[in-house]
Design brief:
Layout: E1 2-3, H1 9-18, H2 23-34, H3 49-58, E2 59-60, E3 65-71, E4 77-82, E5 88-96, E6 99-103, E7 107-108, E8 126-127, H4 130-145, E9 151-156, H5 166-177, E10 189-193, H6 197-206, E11 211-215, H7 221-227, H8 230-233, H9 236-250, E12 254-260, H10 268-277, E13 283-289, H11 303-315, E14 319-322, H12 336-343
Parallel strand pairs: 1-2, 6-9, 9-10, 10-11, 11-12, 12-13, 13-14
Antiparallel strand pairs: 3-4, 4-5, 5-6, 7-8
């Protein structure tokens, strides 16, 4: 059965009209789901019994089950969910000075095959529906509701390539962004892609106010192709052309994600190449300490080594930050909790 979370605000109104109801009925259902955060249709007490009966025949609300939760000393919390078909997926809530951010997965597994990433240890089984992405957010928000806290930011940066599931991701964001629903501001929403060039053009033409982050991780084609197979399909020349088009169309600052891998992409020549690659762009680089994965042989740089790379970029007029490490005492790497539970035979 389809989830009610699959329908954004406009689609909810369309559904109401298709049933011969007033469009306002869709507004009421939407309010119950996102303002009241009910998980039972019968809790929608201003709907008639007949209306509720029809909804229950056609829809479920939340199709995810929380099967494990890990809480770090720094407040980072990992949630492992299981879908109705037995698939496992994970989401992460992180605490920052500016608020609480949730990292949402967009696929079950990932086909991008990045050499350093735990998420790609299992191939993509399927795309997540927009409703399953909404459910990740709401399950975590309901936990925070108990403490009077609120999620303020979303990053679509968990397991999967968001632009490989473009329509569902955009539908999910339409729901969480809507001011009659969860009301997460556009500028508090970030979508990350490893470089699916045709979808970058499509995203640019949508002219949303969402932030775009590019998982770069290497400053030249030879190294990037070794680390990220997608570079063989869309090399840096094509990727940068698409990025510049996005910048022209949207006048938005871009983020480039760059995981520092010891002895691989962290040398002075890499910093110089990176500054040349990004010259003239309204962008900054988010330098990320690597979270080790048992199945991978990569190692993280020290804080001092990261600072050397940072200083080289700054001296070459590239704005950058070094991301604070989160959840070091739990399964910190993206997708690692899911992989560890799959090994135990918990799910797929």
């Amino acid at each position: 059965m389809q989830s009610l979370y699959d329908l954004n605000y406009e689609q909810m109104g369309d559904f109401a009209q298709s049933m011969g109801w007033k469009r306002f009925r869709g507004h009421q259902i939407f309010q119950w789901l996102y303002r009241e955060r009910v998980t039972d249709v019968d809790a929608m007490t201003n709907l008639s019994k007949e209306t509720r009966s029809i909804l229950k025949e056609r829809f479920v609300i939340d199709s995810l089950k929380v099967v494990k939760k890990q809480v770090s000393f720094d407040g980072t919390t990992k949630f492992l969910f299981q879908t109705e078909d037995g698939s496992l997926l994970e989401s992460v809530m992180m605490v920052f000075d500016y608020g609480r951010s949730v990292c949402v997965s967009s696929q079950v597994g990932c086909n991008m095959g990045c050499a350093f990433c735990a998420s790609g240890l299992t191939k993509k089984r399927r795309n997540l529906t927009s409703g399953e992405m909404v459910a990740q957010f709401l399950n975590i928000q309901r936990e925070l509701d108990k403490e009077g806290q609120r999620l303020s930011h979303i990053v679509v940066m968990g397991t999967g390539e968001p632009f490989d599931n473009y329509e569902n991701v955009m539908n999910f964001l339409a729901t969480v962004n809507h001011d009659r629903g969860l009301g997460i501001g556009s500028r508090h929403i970030t979508i990350s892609t490893c470089g699916v060039v045709p979808r970058i053009y499509k995203f640019a033409d949508e002219h949303t106010q969402y932030n775009l982050a590019i998982s770069l991780h290497a400053p030249n084609d030879e190294l990037r192709s070794k680390l990220m197979p997608i570079n063989q399909a869309y090399p840096l020349s094509e990727l940068m052309k698409a990025i510049r088009y996005y910048g022209q169309e949207n006048n938005r600052r871009l983020t480039f994600e760059y995981i520092l891998l010891k002895g691989v992409n962290d040398q002075p020549q890499h910093a110089r190449q990176l500054s040349q690659l990004l010259h003239g762009l309204n962008a900054y680089v988010n330098l990320i300490p690597y979270n080790s994965v048992d199945e991978k042989q990569f190692k993280s740089v020290t804080r001092q080594e990261a600072m050397v790379f940072y200083d080289l970029l700054m001296k070459n007029n590239v704005r950058c930050t070094i991301r604070k490490e989160h959840g070091q005492d739990i399964d910190a790497a993206c997708g690692q909790l899911r992989i560890n539970e799959i090994k135990k035979g918990l799910g797929q």
